[in-house]
């Protein structure tokens, strides 16, 4: 049998049903005419070509003679006798149009640093036409001036297998990583592929250390191909049973929920319930959002921990009561763990998360900007608490009202506790941003849970300070009459300080970054070169998505 109509075997039947039928032998000229005038035009219009053929037989062959003695199928297996010497009736083209959302989804993948490449069973011309329509192949980048695709940008599975393998005397293939590394930076479309080709792609990309070859990376950059400076992360799509090994080996396996077999679903990590390629973009966006949420929570929690540890260390060497009691620390711990995790982990994903390059495998989860934020905010909080401890004279009304006027349960220490808690509440808003953004309130209207948690925290703090002193002043160590309005304004002023302080941190980081860039420029790295390099790295993919053509 022939896989599709790109390979035509047997005779051509010519004539109409009402007329006498004549059979024409297919010689090389007729075969070329069929390819050039029938099959190729269909294929270039992204149609799958199917040959319709028949064979008249008087009786079925015997079980021991069901295979042809010499003829083989295109995959090398013996051909059934009934499937040889067929009479070709017609060649038809079937169009499987792209879904309207696919080109936009692939463009968003490229913006996110996700490089989409197509692995399909279609013939090469059809695969190229589909890839052009989907945006996988770019006319300016992957075709010459005459519209012919550049070498190694698209190839058939048999060519790919011969290129990346050496063969033993008994025909057993031996994978060659060095040969694979010469191909994969260019390869965009793999046609007439087998499930084994998918596994070979996943294996080769997973093992590739091309990024460590600086000379080769520089050579590829000169050709407009950027290599991500870390090992590749491979995502593979599939729906058939034979795709299971590749789905299992890939870092992320996507199986089709509707058309996929149960074996493919069991081997995959993620199941696309709607069989839609655009859902991969949604998965990537939510994956980045989960990672960002973890970073936001760490940024907030570590800031509080650094401040509390610093305060405990400082007050251990001075003759003063601890600014925070055990129960107050437990309340802060509740804010840090439960309430903050609810607030910061409920941020919905945004389109901007798909407009930045991927995170390296070896990159730390705590970025340089996060260290600036955490240390900067911790310094502010420690300074304010120490200032409130030692400069109590200018605080309004701390010596008025019922005793005590010093130490725990006094209004002085209640102001310290209240100010420290409010600083954490306002710093939660700063922790929503990880890249040094100036507008920390952008998108907050989309996260109602964050606003509810913030208001609930403030309400509970008011209850603790103003009312629990009557029943449990010994427990929470707050003044039994609470704080006055003037004292609350002082606490709110210091508590809201992290909002302004964050802008100072961002400005400092911005100045330092530009100062470093200026130093690089003075060493001979021109601004345009730096910009070009930065854009190149931003476009370089770390996640390869392999599609089986079901777009």
Keywords:
49% helix, alpha/beta, single chain, 13% strand, 551 residues, four-stranded mixed sheet, seven-stranded parallel sheet, disordered N terminus
Secondary structure class reads alpha/beta
Share of residues in helices: 40-55%
Number of E-state strands: 15
Largest sheet entry: 7 strands, parallel
The overall pLDDT average reads: 81
- Estimate the strand proportion: 5-15%
pLDDT below 50 for ≥5 consecutive residues: which ranges?
1-18, 520-542
Task: Give the overall shape.
Answer: elongated
Structural notes for this entry:
49% of the residues lie in helices and 13% in strands. By secondary structure, the protein is an alpha/beta fold. Helix 10 links the parallel strand 13 (252-256) and strand 14 (270-272). The chain is built from 18 helices and 15 strands. The radius of gyration is 34 Å and the shape is elongated. The model is unreliable at 1-18 and 520-542 (pLDDT under 50). The strands form 4 sheets. Strands 8-11-7-15-12-13-14 form a 7-stranded parallel β-sheet, sandwiched between helices. Strands 2-1-6-3 form a 4-stranded mixed β-sheet, with helices on one face. The protein has helices spanning 28-44, 102-111, 124-134, 139-142, 157-164, 177-183, 195-207, 214-222, 244-249, 262-267, 278-315, 326-344, 368-390, 411-431, 448-466, 468-476, 485-522, 527-539, and strands at residues 11-14, 22-24, 47-54, 67-72, 78-80, 87-95, 114-119, 154-156, 165-167, 173-175, 189-191, 233-238, 252-256, 270-272, 543-547.
């Amino acid at each position: 049998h022939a896989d599709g109509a790109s390979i035509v075997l047997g005779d051509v039947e010519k004539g109409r049903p009402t007329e006498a039928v004549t059979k024409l032998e297919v010689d090389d000229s007729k075969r070329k005419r069929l390819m050039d005038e029938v099959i190729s035009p269909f294929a270039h219009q992204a149609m799958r070509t199917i040959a319709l053929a028949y064979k008249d037989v008087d009786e079925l062959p015997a079980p021991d003679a069901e295979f042809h003695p010499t003829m083989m199928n295109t995959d090398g297996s013996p051909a059934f006798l009934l499937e040889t010497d067929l009479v070709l009736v017609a060649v038809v083209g079937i169009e499987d149009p792209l879904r309207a959302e696919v080109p936009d989804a692939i463009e968003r993948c490229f913006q996110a640093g996700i490089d989409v490449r197509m692995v399909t069973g279609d013939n090469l011309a059809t695969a190229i036409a589909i890839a052009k329509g989907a945006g996988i192949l770019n006319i300016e980048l992957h075709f010459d001036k005459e519209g012919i695709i550049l070498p190694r940008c698209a190839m058939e599975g048999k060519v790919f297998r011969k290129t990346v393998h050496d063969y033993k005397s008994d025909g057993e293939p031996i994978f060659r990583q060095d040969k694979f590394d010469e191909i994969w930076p260019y390869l965009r479309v793999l046609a007439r592929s087998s499930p084994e080709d998918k596994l070979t792609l996943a294996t080769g990309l997973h093992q590739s250390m091309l990024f460590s070859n600086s000379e080769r990376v520089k050579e590829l950059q000169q050709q407009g191909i950027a290599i991500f400076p870390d090992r590749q992360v491979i995502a593979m799509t599939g729906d058939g049973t034979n795709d299971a090994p590749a789905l299992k080996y890939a870092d992320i396996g996507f199986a089709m929920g509707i058309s996929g077999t149960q074996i493919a679903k069991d081997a995959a990590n993620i199941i696309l319930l709607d069989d839609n390629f655009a859902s991969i973009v949604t998965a990537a966006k939510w994956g980045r959002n989960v990672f960002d949420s973890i970073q936001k929570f760490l940024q907030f929690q570590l800031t509080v921990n650094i401040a509390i540890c610093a305060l405990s260390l400082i007050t251990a060497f001075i003759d003063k009561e601890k600014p925070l009691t055990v129960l107050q620390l437990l309340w802060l711990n509740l804010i840090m763990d439960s309430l903050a995790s609810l607030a910061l982990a409920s941020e919905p994903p945004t389109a901007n998360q798909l407009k930045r390059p991927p995170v390296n495998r070896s990159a730390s989860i705590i970025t340089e900007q996060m260290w600036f934020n955490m240390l900067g905010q911790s310094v502010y909080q420690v300074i304010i608490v120490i200032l409130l401890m030692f400069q109590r004279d200018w605080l309004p009304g701390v010596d008025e009202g019922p005793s005590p006027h010093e130490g725990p349960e006094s209004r002085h220490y209640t102001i310290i506790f209240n100010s420290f808690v409010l600083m954490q509440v306002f710093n939660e808003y700063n922790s929503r941003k990880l890249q040094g953004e100036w507008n920390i309130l952008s998108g907050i209207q989309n996260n109602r849970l964050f606003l509810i948690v913030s208001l609930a925290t403030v309400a509970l703090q008011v209850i603790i300070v103003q009312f629990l002193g009557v029943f449990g002043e010994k427990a929470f160590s707050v003044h039994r009459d609470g704080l006055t309005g003037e004292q609350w304004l002082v606490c709110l002023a210091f508590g809201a300080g992290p909002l302004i302080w964050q802008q100072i941190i961002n400005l400092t980081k911005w100045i330092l970054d530009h100062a470093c860039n200026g130093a690089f420029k003075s060493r001979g790295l021109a601004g345009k070169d730096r910009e070009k390099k930065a854009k190149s790295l931003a476009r370089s993919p770390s996640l390869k998505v392999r599609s089986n053509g079901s777009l």
